[in-house]
C-alpha cells in the first residue's frame, strides 16, 4: 500500500462503523483496517485495498469469546498461514482497543 492508498483508506467514510485500528501484514503486502460491523453486534470486519478500492476481506464473529472467521470469496483460497496471520492481527487490534477501555459508538 502506498502512502496515497493509506491516505485514501484513512479518509474513507466508515459510516456507522467504529474503526478499531490498522495493522500491517507483510504476507498481504498492505495495511489492513479493523472495524465494527454496523448490522451485527459482537462482530469485527477487516478491510484492505483491492485494485485501489476498499474491500471487505474478513468478518470475525464473537471476537471476545470464540472467534469465528468468515472469509470473503476472493480471499478464502489463500494459504492457511496467510489467513491465520490476518485473523490474529485483527484480533490483536480489536483486543488492544477494548483493553484501552474504549466503547463502541
The helix tally amounts to 2
- Find the structural class using helix and strand composition: alpha+beta
Q: What is the mean pLDDT?
A: 83
The residue ranges in which pLDDT falls below 50 over 5 or more consecutive positions are none
Number of beta-strand segments: 5
Distance between the termini: 28 Å
- SSE series: HEEEEEH
Task: Give an account of the 3D structure.
- By secondary structure, the protein is α+β, with helices and mostly antiparallel strands.
- It is built from 2 helices and 5 strands; from the N terminus they run αβββββα.
- It has helices at about 5-10, 80-100; strands at about 20-25, 30-35, 45-50, 55-60, 70.
- It has a 5-stranded antiparallel beta sheet.
- Strand 4 and strand 5 (about 70) form a beta hairpin.
- It is globular.
- The mean pLDDT is about 85.
Question: TL;DR of this structure?
Answer:
The protein contains two helices and five strands. It is α+β, with helices and mostly antiparallel strands.
Key descriptive features of the protein:
single chain; 105 residues; alpha+beta; five-stranded antiparallel beta sheet
Topology:
Layout: H1 3-11, E1 19-25, E2 30-36, E3 43-50, E4 53-61, E5 68-71, H2 80-99
